[in-house]
């Protein structure tokens, strides 16, 4: 396929090279425009966080994640911060799992999406991933205030971890999955912002293949693709040519997946960006200590762009990324940083220079 590149101006930045592992310093200079934490540990009452999400509104960026004592603890709630005048607001808890005076469940996996003058927040509530259910709230003021919590219909979970895609038909296509009978992927859709829903059958049986947490890519001629997290040491893919109503069999692409969340986005120029942990479980490389950025023209053949994180401590975790492209063309990525903080990175996709991967192996010169 060759290098996928667009050239731009800029001088060599040693800091960017160290942070991003660029293989061509002249062309990748200033690829990363910002690297920051959304909050500091002393600003919040919880020690642990995970599963962040990000969306753009007319008033700026909004980010959310779940935070509490630790994942699965009953005090875990959904926390949210807004970017105002270039600064992130102090996080506030917008959702908890309180059922009554004597019962509280943890909350899980928020997903933000802005459309039709409303900011949507999907999330899960329940004791664990096998027994949770879907809920949602809406905001008319870009995340400042929220509607009451609304439980989704039975058998509807909403977007399970990654953002929906708004189709030309007006339908909101939500990538979803379940874990109560094996890991199984299905797709859900709503054309009235969550009032009514439809869903596909499961795309896999949860026996021969365990797959969850799809992320959606869009292709020419209304073709759709999903990429999925699996327990099979590979990212798996499926395709749809009828607006997500039916899907092809899930098949592996030539990228590893160490049973960790991924996210991807189709850029306005047609290229696709993928954030994931490029770790082969069979090689015992580590858990989630590497976080990688790759690019593709076709969703099948991927080239290496750079490492967002590269930690020699294999116990350190950088995971569950979320990626969007904003109206100014820039790309925003947020992710779990060691289960302690949420990190936010901004890159300029016009400056991306990529390197082919030999048989799905990450190039040694990009570290």
Describe this entry's structure for a reader.
It is a single chain. With 367 residues, this protein is mainly beta. It has helices spanning 14-20, 25-28, and strands at 32-37, 48-57, 60-68, 77-84, 87-88, 92-95, 98-100, 103-104, 107-115, 118-125, 133-139, 150-151, 165-166, 172-178, 184-190, 198-199, 211-219, 223-230, 234-240, 251-256, 263-266, 272-276, 290-296, 302-310, 318-325, 331-337, 341-347, 355-356. The protein is 3% helix and 46% strand. The two termini are 22 Å apart.
Number of strands: 28
Fraction of residues in helices?
under 10%
Q: Distance N terminus to C terminus?
A: 22 Å
Quaternary organisation of the protein chains: single chain
Uncertain residue ranges: 4-19, 21-27
> Number of domains in the coordinates?
1
**Which whole number gives the mean pLDDT?**
92
Q: State the CATH class.
A: Mainly Beta
> What's the story with the biggest beta sheet?
5 strands, antiparallel
CATH architecture: 6 Propeller
Beta-strand share of residues = over 45%
In short:
By secondary structure, the protein is mostly beta strands. It has helices at residues 14-20, 25-28; strands at residues 32-37, 48-57, 60-68, 77-84, 87-88, 92-95, 98-100, 103-104, 107-115, 118-125, 133-139, 150-151, 165-166, 172-178, 184-190, 198-199, 211-219, 223-230, 234-240, 251-256, 263-266, 272-276, 290-296, 302-310, 318-325, 331-337, 341-347, 355-356.
């Amino acid at each position: 396929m060759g290098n996928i590149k667009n050239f731009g101006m800029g001088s060599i930045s040693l800091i960017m090279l160290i942070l991003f592992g660029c293989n061509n310093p002249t062309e990748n200079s200033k690829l990363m425009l910002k690297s920051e934490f959304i909050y500091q540990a002393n600003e919040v009452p919880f020690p642990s966080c995970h599963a962040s999400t990000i969306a753009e509104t007319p008033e700026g960026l909004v980010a959310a994640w779940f935070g509490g004592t630790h994942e699965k603890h009953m005090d875990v709630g959904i926390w949210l911060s807004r970017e105002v005048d270039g600064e992130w607001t102090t996080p506030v808890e917008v959702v908890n799992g309180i059922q009554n005076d004597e019962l509280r469940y943890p909350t899980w996996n928020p997903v933000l999406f802005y459309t039709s003058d409303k900011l949507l927040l999907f999330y899960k509530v329940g004791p664990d991933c096998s027994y949770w259910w879907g809920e949602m709230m809406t905001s008319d003021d870009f995340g400042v205030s929220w509607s009451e919590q609304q439980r989704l219909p039975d058998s509807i979970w909403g977007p399970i971890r990654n953002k929906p895609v708004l189709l030309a038909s007006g339908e909101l296509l939500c990538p979803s999955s379940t874990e109560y009978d094996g890991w199984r992927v299905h797709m859900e859709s709503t054309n009235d912002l969550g009032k009514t829903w439809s869903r596909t059958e499961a795309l896999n049986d949860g026996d021969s293949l365990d797959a969850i947490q799809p992320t959606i890519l869009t292709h020419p001629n209304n073709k759709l693709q999903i990429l999925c997290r699996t327990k099979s040491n590979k990212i798996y893919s499926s395709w749809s040519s009828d607006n997500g109503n039916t899907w092809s069999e899930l098949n592996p692409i030539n990228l590893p997946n160490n049973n960790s969340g991924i996210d991807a986005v189709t850029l306005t120029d047609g290229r696709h960006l993928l954030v994931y942990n490029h770790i082969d479980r069979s090689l015992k490389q580590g858990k989630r200590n590497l976080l990688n950025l790759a690019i593709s023209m076709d969703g099948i053949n991927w080239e290496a762009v750079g490492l967002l994180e590269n930690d020699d401590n294999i116990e350190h975790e950088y995971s569950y990324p979320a990626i969007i492209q904003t109206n100014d063309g820039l790309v925003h990525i947020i992710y779990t940083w060691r289960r302690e903080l949420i990190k936010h990175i901004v890159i300029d996709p016009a400056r991306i220079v990529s390197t082919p991967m030999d048989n799905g192996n990450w190039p040694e010169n990009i570290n």
